[in-house]
Write a structure and sequence with these properties.
Layout lengths: L3 E7 L5 H10 L3 E3 L4 H14 L4 E5 L11 H10 L3 E8 L2 H11 L13 H17 L3 E4 L5 H12 L8 E8 L10 E4 L20 H8 L2 H24 L3 E8 L5 H13 L4 E6 L5
Parallel strand pairs: 1-3, 1-4, 2-3, 4-5, 6-8, 6-9, 7-8
Helix pairs in contact: 1-6, 2-3, 8-9
């Protein structure tokens, strides 16, 4: 029985520890932060000691300069008959920044070139570009919880995961800044604004009164249908390229009325044929 190796990589704060823990729970021998140069010798030792052992490891920017060897190391291991799956975990920059603010963790690259988390993320993405490109699976953890991530990791290693393109829809308010990392940003500020109707100002696009108000305007429905068609066209093209996630942001002035309603309607339309997750970034502001 051949040795099976799962390599977990990705951005700091994207869920690598959770993913490794999920694999440990189903019987994998797990190691964190193994430099690529040591993988060949380590796997040879493990294969001779534990025939057919399932092994999982995290390889990320903590490997330093040896990270650049990952592609040749993976090719060498596959030539030796080791079955390898590479899973790359990512998330939107604003999500990663928020996670760092909540946990107050130190970024592994801090203290080298930069201190600002935004610049550290840019540098980390640059360093991880090669391993991302050779990954078998890329999972965006922006809008999934730890339980969903664990389930997806287990489905992948057990061969039960289908490579289905997912849509992440997020409503937001322009006054609070653009979402980072969006593939598409649609502006709904030109549409009738429920905020200026006194009885609707304190409500949101989830409330029946706001829904009824916006449904009265044909331009709103026309806009939703046109946006949906653009996204459907993107889905078709991106699927052929192997892209796993399309992140779509819909903004209005405050992110509580029009953008929420439109995101919900798009979810209904697109969800008939595609996996959709939805988030309302500024609805509580």
């Amino acid at each position: 029985m051949s040795t099976e190796l799962v390599v977990i990589s990705g951005m700091s704060g994207a869920g690598k520890t959770t993913a490794l823990g999920a694999l440990e729970d189903i019987g994998y021998f797990c190691m964190d932060n193994v430099p690529p140069a040591l993988l060949v010798d380590m796997l040879s030792l493990m294969n001779s000691t534990f025939n057919g052992k399932k092994i999982a490891t995290i390889v990320d920017v903590r490997a330093g300069q040896t990270l650049g060897q990952i592609k040749s190391v993976i090719e060498d291991l596959r030539l030796k008959g080791i079955l390898i799956k590479i899973i790359f975990l990512d998330a939107k920059d604003d999500i990663l920044i928020n996670r760092y603010n909540l946990t107050r963790r130190r970024h592994p690259l801090s203290g080298e070139k930069y201190q600002e988390i935004e610049k550290l993320l840019i540098e980390e993405r640059r360093l991880l570009l090669e391993i991302r490109e050779i990954s078998d699976y890329v999972i965006d953890t922006s809008l999934i919880n730890t339980h969903q991530l664990r389930s997806e990791i287990i489905a992948i290693v057990e061969g039960k995961s289908e490579r289905v393109l997912r849509i992440f829809l997020e409503s937001f308010g322009f006054k609070y800044g653009l979402p980072l990392g969006a593939d598409f940003v649609f502006d709904a500020r030109f549409l009738p604004n429920p905020y200026y109707v006194e009885s609707l100002a304190d409500k949101t696009g989830n409330d029946p009164e706001v829904i009824d108000y916006l449904q009265k305007f044909s331009i709103v429905e026309e806009y939703i249908n046109k946006v949906a068609n653009i996204i459907k066209m993107a889905i078709e093209s991106y699927s052929k390229e192997g892209k796993s996630v399309i992140y779509v942001a819909i903004g209005c002035s405050g992110g509580r009325h029009r953008s929420v309603y439109i995101a919900n309607k798009l979810s209904e339309i697109l969800g008939k044929d595609t996996s959709v997750r939805i988030s309302h970034r500024d609805i509580e502001r």
